[in-house]
Amino acid sequence: MVVKRGNCSFTTKAKNAQFIGAKLVMIIDDNAMEDVTSIIMADDGKGESINVPVVLISEIDGETILKYLNSTNETISRSVALSVKFSMPHYTNHVEYELWMSSENNRSYDIVEELYPLEKSFGNETTMSVHYYLWFCPEC
What is the rounded CA–CA span in Å between residue 72 and residue 20? Predict the structure, then answer.
């Protein structure tokens, strides 16, 4: 399904498209000057049920696709085919994951301490990176 970027979140667009049967959601950016490769389509916290792939394409590419899809010439509009391929360039059995925590959470260190033995039990199969958000509170 091809949709235009608008005022609702990427998550909302993906959920709505999936709900009506989309197998892939292609979102067309709304700013021709924007580099879509620098945009992070983050989950707004409500995307746990989304299981369709979602991609963001430039406004220029999107308008080109829409021009053909919306063509009044049936030969053109019926012959539009789109293929999207997702691949992992270097498949390995190694899993890398990140753990993000806040410095305002008193249990942050405890969680890392509890996960450390599990991380080590996987040997060289995993790499855990721990990141902290640091907050400064001048009133504290």
Answer: 25
Range of the structural domain that residue 106 is part of: 95-133
pTM score:
0.59
Q: State pLDDT tens for residues 20-45.
A: 999 999 999 998 888 888 888 888 88
Q: 41, 29 in Cβ contact below 8 A?
A: no
Report the run of H or E that residue 8 belongs to, with start and end.
none
CB atoms within 10 A of CB 1: 17
* CATH code of the domain covering residue 38: 3.50.30.30
Closest listed residue to residue 3, CA positions, set 46, 37, 41, 35: 41
The helix/strand/coil state of 102 is strand
Task: Give me 129's structure tokens.
Answer: 């990176």
Find tokens 């009506």 and name the residue. 20
> In whole angstroms, how far apart are CA 84 and each of 2, 18, 24, 26, 71?
13, 17, 9, 10, 22
